[in-house]
UniProtKB/TrEMBL annotation:
Family note: Belongs to the autoinducer-2 exporter (AI-2E) (TC 2.A.86) family.
One Gene Ontology cellular component annotation held by this UniProt entry: plasma membrane
Record InterPro entries: AI-2E-like
Keywords carried by this UniProt record: Cell membrane, Membrane, Transmembrane, Transmembrane helix, Transport
BP terms from Gene Ontology: transmembrane transport
Location in or out of the cell: Cell membrane
Taxonomic lineage of the native organism: Bacteria, Bacillati, Bacillota, Negativicutes, Selenomonadales
Protein name: Permease
Entry's transmembrane regions: 29-46, 58-82, 136-158, 199-215, 221-249, 256-273, 293-318
Length: 338
């Protein structure tokens, strides 16, 4: 018979095997991750609607309206953002030259040399991102099969998600079924809170940044907004990088605006992460900032950009598995004493 300790080991090994899929089977991992992401976003609405109509119909309707919104956003991005971003990439060498010609930059050769390398990296990264975006749009037809698979997997996760959890829990010994099911439920709930809160933070940040640069009459307001929104999904480090990016490029219009923009980003970041974020997430995740930073850095080293996005979800899962093992060991000791 499998002991409680062996069950803990199986759970840990299962998570490691699942996480390794992002390295060894990236296509499969991508489909699974996106499907799970969408399911966690929509399952709340499906649960509410399924009280009035059959769950399969509720899942289909919610997924259909989600796809409509997604296609609408894709249309807006392709029509408005991509041309602006393309213009920004073309204009980047001129912007970089204006910054490097500033007097205080010229007086510090080491900073000037570092800026040369930084602008080269940014230009290369931006060109690659634009090229990959256009290539993605052109090759969408080649990805249609993956897209269809994601839709079907998401539908069945929405429709039968709880039954799937029960099936997985039933693979373990009878005495551990409740424990394993509770662990799965807690992990998914925490991931749901994290993903929804991060998306909300991204949207809030993007809107605020777009509003600010629009008021400043900056023609690249949408570029700053999208960059800030995406960077918000990488906790701690992302907003810092976006802030530095915005402050530096603001100097190309009017140097005195550097202080104003720096104050704007500082105030926005403080409000986001000391007022909005705690109220949105609460203490559900309870992860120390240093753990987040190190996790993001480690994730970036292992999987690059994708690893930075996946770092916190992995930390959440690891945290709950460790807590489950600890609680199981404590219960085992208590039962032995009795």
């Amino acid at each position: 018979m499998i002991s409680a300790r062996q069950t803990s080991i199986v759970l840990a090994v299962a998570f490691v095997a699942l996480a390794s899929g992002f390295w060894f089977f990236p296509s499969f991992a991508f489909i699974f991750f996106i499907s799970l992401l969408v399911q966690l976003l929509l399952v709340g609405m499906v649960n509410k609607l399924s009280k009035k109509i059959p769950r399969s119909v509720a899942a289909g309707l919610i997924l259909f309206f989600f796809l409509l919104i997604l296609f609408g956003l894709a249309t807006v991005i392709s029509v408005s953002f991509i041309p602006t971003f393309s213009s920004f990439i073309m204009d980047l060498p001129r912007l970089a030259a204006k910054i490097q010609n500033m007097q205080f930059i010229q007086d510090m050769p080491s900073i000037n040399s570092s800026l040369d390398n930084m602008w080269g990296d940014i230009a290369s990264m931006g060109s690659n991102l634009l090229r990959e975006s256009l290539r993605f749009i052109v090759s969408t037809f080649n990805k249609i099969i993956d897209f269809v698979i994601i839709i079907f997997v998401t539908f069945y996760l929405l429709k039968d998600g709880r039954a799937i959890l029960h099936f997985m829990a039933n693979l373990f010994p009878r005495r551990d079924k409740v424990r394993v099911f509770h662990l799965f439920t807690v992990v998914l709930h925490s991931l749901q809170i994290y993903i929804r809160s991060q998306l909300l933070m991204c949207c809030i940040t993007g809107v605020i940044v777009y509003s600010y640069f629009s008021i400043m009459d900056n023609k690249y307001a949408s570029v700053f907004a999208v960059i800030s929104g995406i960077c918000e999904f990488v906790p701690v480090l992302g907003p810092t990088v976006a802030s530095l990016f915005g402050v530096m490029l603001t100097a190309t219009d009017t140097p005195y605006l550097i202080i104003q923009t720096a104050c704007f980003y500082l105030i926005m970041t403080q409000i986001n992460h000391n007022l909005i974020y705690p109220n949105v997430v609460g203490k559900a995740l309870d992860i120390h900032p240093i753990t987040t930073i190190l996790g993001v850095v480690l994730g970036g080293e292992i999987l690059g950009t994708a690893g930075m996005f996946l770092a916190v979800p992995c930390i959440v899962v690891v945290k709950h598995i460790i807590l489950d093992i600890y609680q199981s060991e404590q219960e085992l000791k208590d039962s032995t004493k009795n």
